[in-house]
Structure formats: structure tokens, C-alpha cells
Fold each of these.
Amino acid sequence: MRLRTLGLIVTLALGILAAPLAARAQQAGRVPRIGFLTTGASPVPWEAFRQGLRDLGYVEGQNIVIERRSAAGKVERLPDLAVDLVGLKVDVIVAPDPPAAGAAKNATKTIPVVVRTSDDPVAMGLVASLARPGGNITGLTSLWGELSGKRLELLKEVVPRISRVAVLWNPAHPGAILALRETEVAARSLGLQLQSLEVRGPNPDFEGAFGAAARERAGALITLRNPLIVRHRTRIVNLAAKSRLPAMYDEREFVEAGGLTSYGANLSDLNRRAAVYVDKILKGAKPADLPVEQPTKFELVINRKTAKALGLTIPQSILIRADEVIQ
């Protein structure tokens, strides 16, 4: 009788121990599903994020599944796409631009969301603070708005004789007002006049904006980042060249497309870093406890060929500080 009772106790104990082991084994065999939600203004976030996953040992179709949803530049489509990902019960949603981040935030309060936003995530209402996000959202910020003044300073160094700078921006974009204010503060300290060139979607009048810059005799151009401008970067770069306007951008892709210069965080690096957040969350970390990461390295890129076409000689003080000079 005692042996039978002892055997029953052992059996029950083994069953209790085996249950979580079986659950963990089942969980270990499950392939995580990641939702990737983007406005679609640039292919860079997707490519860099996938590379970041590969660097961590994730192979799409083998040990991870990625549900990619792109609004193809149509911001109004993002809410429905975000709801679609929530319906698929993905484990994490990655949103690499501000409109996508906002749509993901509105679609779910429970699924972890990793953002890579150019705007201030606290001001956007995405997180409670950078150190303690506090909800289901965390990720990275590129300090885009805060660097607008620094870009104007660098533009003044590249083109010392300018007195009037045209600002190409979209007032409807979250964070645009903050970036414009930063630019205005820098303009006052540098003794520069700013000319506002507003462009709005879905059919922005870039030709009209550049025509206005020519009429007011702007000596240079600076762009305030938003998906609309990113999506039309080649068109903008070509119009700047046609108007013979030296231009400062916030990401290297503009310079690679023929723009004069850019200054900002390396967005490819930040999007690769987003994969690190996904990895931590899949391993059990809570977004509320993962601080929002800010960039520590910024890159200055110069296109010397474009400078030559504009009749500009880039000062040596700028060239020696450049992270890359495209010849």
C-alpha cells in the first residue's frame, strides 16, 4: 500500500514537472511571427532590419516568419494594415517610421511594438519616457528634429556667403513644427533668413516650391524630413540641381542620389538595431523595461561631384570632418 501511494506521488510529481517542460518545448518549436509595418517611403528600413535579424541568427522562413505590410506611400492605409497584423497575432510589430508607429500604437495595447522613429517618441505619445517606456512600445529614435539646427550650421559652413535659405517641409507631418523651430533658432544665431516652402501630399507641388525659392532668391535649401520628402528624394535632388541650390539633407540616401550634403544618424544602423530589440522581446524582455535608444554617432556625407557642378569649393574644415566624401 505504501509502495503504491509512493508510486502515485512520484507519478504526480513527474507530471507536474513535465508539464512546464512540455510547454517550453512546444514554445521552443514555435516559429516567431514578426509584423513589419511601414509607410513605404524608402526600402532602406526593410533591408537593414532583415540584415540585423540575419546577424542574430534569424533566417526568414526557417526560424522566423515576417509579415510585411507597406502602405506604398499612402499614410491613410496604415491603420487598416496595423489592424491586419494584430489579427494575425504576431509576436512583435516593427514600425520604422512615425506614421507607422502611430498606427501600431492605435491598433494594439498588448502586442510589443518596436519603433524606429525620426520624431520624439515622448512628444508623440508613444512612450512615457525614454528611460522607462512604460507600455508595449519601445525602440530607437534618430533625433531628427533636434538636429535641424545643426544641419543649418553645417550648411552655412559649406556655403559661407548664403543669407537666405529655403526650408522644404510638410506641416502635416508629426514633429515638423519642432524641427522648424529648431531651424529658426539656428537661423537667428547665424543671421540667416528662412523661406518656408510647404509641400503636402498626395500630389506635392515641388516644382512650384522651387519656383518660389528662385523668385525669392534663396541661396540654399534645407529639407525637414517626412515620408513625403523621402519618397520623392530623387525628384527633389534633381530640382535642387536644376535650380542650382546647394542643399542639406538629413540622410545619406539623398547624397547618394546626387544631393550635395547630409548630416544625421545612420538610419541603416538604427534599423539593424531594431532587430536587437525584437530578439530581446522574443526572449522574454518587456518593452516597458527596455529604454528607447538614442544614436551616439552621426555622419556627415559630402558629394564632391555635385559641389563641382554647382561651382562650390567645399572648405577643408568640412572635408576633414566628413565621414564620407562621394567623388
Amino acid sequence: GVTTKMVNGTISGLSAMQTGYAFMGGGSASVTGPATAFQVSGVENRLTDLLAFRTTTVAVPFSITADRGALRRNVNYAAGSTAPDLSFTGAESFALATATVTLLNAGAENTNLFTAFSTSNGDVGTLFIPEVTAGGALGVPSTHTAPGDFHQFIATAAPADFLSFRVVFQFNRDLANRTLTFGAPLNVPTLTTIATSPYARLRVVGTWQAEYGGIAGTDMTQSSGASFRAWSIQGSRGYFGASSQFELELPDFTGTAGFLNSWGLTVGSATEVTTFATGAIAGTLGVIAEGSAYRAASRVQTITP
């Protein structure tokens, strides 16, 4: 029920080839120097924070580096108003903290690491600068954090064909040297067509793995020209009980009030099926707290019902 608004603002301390990214109340915007003005739409009407980061782009050889941030807490600007200037050279600004994050069990797959910072008011800014030294993490220095703030470290591993994907998430207030370990690749699930009328129905059967024992799910999509159909199914480990397998099946909704069979998957159309599973390393899955960590993995397959 939270309504949204548009807020104007300016960021100073930007030269040519430098970009400022502003995050506030669920909205974001950017401005590239020497310009200073930005406009954030979709800002939630609530007490929020204004968080910004500065990056510098070099054309030859191409690189993007981030060096400074700025944070203004507990604001609630009126719709259409202009926030006071946020300066990367003023008292609200700071040099970004750096740390080394070691990634283990990636094998020969390509890895990426980025950091998101969320404030106690629920505002999230993302620092995704893969051009920084491999394993380097950037964030907010501890002197500028507060209780309820978290850095979220997100590491990914994928082969060149992107037909499988692994990710590790970890939450900590302070930026520090850390080690993140990927789980094993997701076992290849079995896909079958269980019905072709009144629409195509697919079944995905997979095996629970120790690293991903919390939730399993699948996304089934068909895309052809302007036509797009997508179905998503998820189930908890508790739902499947003691079974060593999870079974995710597109139900038959025939006769369900308001349902149109034309919404179902079509026969003879290639269907991309992405199966995923996730589990907790530390803490409780879905609960963000100091040290909470989760792992997930997915597989992409194609079937034509």
C-alpha cells in the first residue's frame, strides 16, 4: 500500500567521464559529469536514505572503477521537490572501503563478484564493477555504517554456454576479507511431457543435494515473436517430506473458474526450462542477519512437448 513519488536532486563532485549513481526509497538514477542534476522516480513515500556512488570510466584501455560514496540518512522529501546537493567532496562523502573475497570451488567456470549495500531503512545500492581486480570487493567503510545495515556479497559461477549457474550470497554489516565457497553444480533433472491436451503439461524431477536442501523450483517459458508464456513452480523441502527427489509438475487447471486453457504451454513449441534449488549455509533461508549465507544452483534445458 505504499505510494511512490518523484524526487529531483543534484550530485556535485563529478568531472567528465565520471558517473554518480543515486539510490533512494526503491528508486535509482544516474548522472554523468559535468552534469549534476538527476531525477529519481518510484521513490516510496516513507522515511528513507539517499545513497550514492561515483565511478570513473576510461576509454582506452576500457575500465570502470568506483572510488567514492555518499550517504544521507532518514529523509522523506516531498513529491516533486529537489533534495539538497549531495557532494562527493563534502562531509557526507567517503572513500569506498576495499576487501578481498576469495572464491572457492568454481572450477574452470567464469566468476563474478559484486556487492550491494542496504541501509536499515531498506535502501539498496549496488556496486557491480567486474573490471576491478578479481576478487576485489567495494563497499561502505565501517565508520559510516549503522545497526541494521548490511553488505550483501554476491558471487556467481557459470560456464561459457550459461546452461548452468551457481551463486553464493552472504550478508555482513562490515566489509572485510572473506571466503565464499560455491556448491556443486546442480544435478541434471529429468524433463517429461505428461499431457498435450488441453495444453502441454511438463514435469521436472530432480534430486535433492546437500548444498541445496531448502527450496526447489522451475521456470518454464515459451517465446515466439510477440507470443510469450511463462510458468513458475516452487516447493519447499518440507512439502516434499523425506523424499530424495523433488517433482515439479504443471497442473491441469481445466475447470478452474477464470482460467483460460490458452494460457497454458503450447504443443510443438520449444520450451526453455530452468530448474533451480537453494539452501542455507549459515542462518535461516530467507532471513537476513549478520553472517547469513545461502547457496543456489540452476540448470537450463530445452524440451518440445
Amino acid sequence: LSELGQPSYRARQVWEWVYRHGVRDFAAMTNLPKSLRESLAARATFTAVRPAEEARDDESAKWLLELERGGRVEAAKLASEEGYAACLSTQVGCAVGCVFCASGARGLERNLTAGEIVGQLFALGVADVKSIVFMGIGEPFHNYDALLTALRRLSDARGLALSPARMTVSTSGVVPALRRFGDERLRTHLAVSLNATDDQLRARLMPGAARYSLAEIIAACRAYVRASGRRVTFAYVLLAGLNDTDADAHRLVRLLRGLTCHVNLIPYNPVAQADFHTPSRARVRAFGAVLRQAGIETTVRFTKGRGIDAACGQLRLRAS
């Protein structure tokens, strides 16, 4: 708008039309001069993200989204007691390559722009969304600057005004970004995927995250807590017979001792290309009991969206 010789308040007007009122047609922005509306319509579009396919079950929905700049991602809305949680992607593909996760099966194609990240929420529909989790396709901290721009747009008081306290960023543990994120003071929740209690198994399960040791990741998480004053949630996918023993649980207790944190246990959600199994409910309870007895707040993530491949670890580009 500045390039068009417009005063700064015109930018605020357009912003509010887009983010507060959800308007996608310049002609409908009635407090702008007609000549400006026509000029904007000739220069810009609102078609960065378009739904291509949709799948639903009784409580969740998943969309395959086409991106105007090329590529496709998936996003989901998962039911909760308060409304829906929107699960958004940050990349086309993923470089971490977790062997139990479908999202990185094709590797990384490119980062999303901040507009493409935010655009997913508009494509899903914002009216019934009460929280946002950046746990879709991609490693959010591999696309750090676009992620932060998206977080700030979503929480801007002049627009959607979504509380940062209702947003969660999930990472495999990118140490420099973890340390940087604590200094942002965004009040956003942080979830770090561990999934193993020794570096050898973690490198096998999460080959693209093997650059940083568990000791380095935990140290960065401690620095995050000191800088932000917020606790860290550790996600731990339980794989039967591989990382779900009492010995694993006791090693996890030692890793996290003295750290302000919460552990979210995730019984494995099956994906087609991975030969893993979901632990029994008794094994999940026993693992959690070891953590709770050590004073670590622990929950088990109830499966949402498994029937439409929208549960944790199941998002994947299915169309060619």
C-alpha cells in the first residue's frame, strides 16, 4: 500500500478486513476508495491455500490443501472438550524422517510461507477453532522465521486475536531454535518430541534429529524454561517392545529430573510403511506410573482422527 502511495491507515483497514472480518474480496472492503479496491484486485489474490480433498469421522476432519506456489500439505481439525484444535503444517514434507511417522516419508520439498501457514486455518474455517497446534507436516523450527510471523499474525489483537496460550509448537529438538524461542516471550506452549531415552535409539527412530544429543536438547529445554518462565511438554511416542519398558521410563525420569515439564505419552498410531506396534493399555499405564511416582506430571494423548489418518504421526500427502 505504501508503494501505491497510500497512507499507513489503509494497511490497517485491509488487515482488519482480512483478519478480523474474514473478507476475501477487495470489492467488499467498503471503507477503501473504489479506485484503490480496483488496484488491489489487479495486484493481489487470496488463493494461497485451497482445499482439494476432505475426510471426516464423527469428531475430526482432515483436508488435503493445494498451495498456489506449488505443493500440497495436510491439515486437520481435532475435537476437544472446548471446541476444535487445528493442526497446521509448516513445510511441504519433512527432513526429520521419523520412521514411525508418515509425514516425512517423501522427504522435504520446501518451507511454507507465513501466509501459507495462516491460510490453512482460513481453509479449515476459524469459527469453531479454540486452539492451534503446529504438529502437522514439517519441523516448525526448520522454518523458524515464517513460523514466528504466523504466530504473531494469528495472535494480533487487530485480527483473529487468538491467545498464544492456546497455541502449541511441536519440535523434534532443534537446539539453536529452542534456545532462541525462549527469548521470544510469546507465551506459546512448546512440545519437544523425545521418543527415546538414549541417543542410539533416537537416531534410529528420528534420523534427521540425530545432530543433537539428548543431553544437548535437555540443556536447551532448561534454558528455555529459565528464559520464558514456561514449562516444556515432552511428547513420547510409545512403540511396543522398543521404547516402552520400565527401564526406559526410569531413564526418562533421570533425563528430566529437576526440569519444569509435563510428559505426553502417545501410544503409536499405525502408518502403512512402518512395522511397529501399539503397546497394550497395561504397558502404557505402567510406563506412566513410573513417571508419576517420580513427580512428573504425565498424561496419555487420547487418539483423535485415527479413522481418517489424522492422528499424531499419520498426516501424509496421499495424492500424487
